[in-house]
Amino acid sequence: MQQSLLNQMETPDSAEDNPDLSKVIERNIRTIIHLRIKNEEDSELADLEMETKPEDVLAEIERLQQRIK
After folding, report:
1. Rounded distance, CA 69 to CA 60, Å?
2. 2-29: per-residue pLDDT in tens?
3. How many CA atoms lie less than 13 Å away from 37 in the CB half-sphere?
4. What are phi and psi of 52, to 5 degrees?
5. Which DSSP symbol is given to 12?
6. What gap in Å lies between CA 28 and CA 23, rounded to an integer?
7. Whole-angstrom Cα distance, residue 48 to residue 44?
8. How far is Cα 11 from Cα 45, in angstroms, rounded to an integer?
9. Helix, strand, coil percentages for the chain (3-state, nearest 5)
10. Is the overall model pTM greater than 0.70, yes or no?
């Protein structure tokens, strides 16, 4: 319902009403996208760090060395 109200309020030349506001909105959208990507990358890194325990890595190295011998 809100979307239809917004659509009714929009005019084709709304960017010309306040070009500075358009620039601010565009900058904010780009910032939000950047932050979402950064948070996603940080989340993936945290998942990898949680899944990889040093003792498991050492155990795997020892296991592989035993196979070579």
Report:
1. 15
2. 555 555 555 555 556 777 878 888 888 8
3. 6
4. -105, 105
5. T
6. 9
7. 6
8. 44
9. 85, 0, 15
10. no
Cα dihedral 18/21/27/29 (nearest 10): -100
End-to-end, the C-alpha distance of the chain in Å comes to: 71
Q: 3-state class of 26 per DSSP?
A: helix
Q: Which residues contact 64 (CB under 8 A, 6 or more apart)?
A: none
The position carrying tokens 């960017």 is: 15
Work out the number of other CB atoms within 10 angstroms of the CB of residue 22: 13
Task: Evaluate whether 46 touches 39 at the Cβ level (below 8 Å).
Answer: no
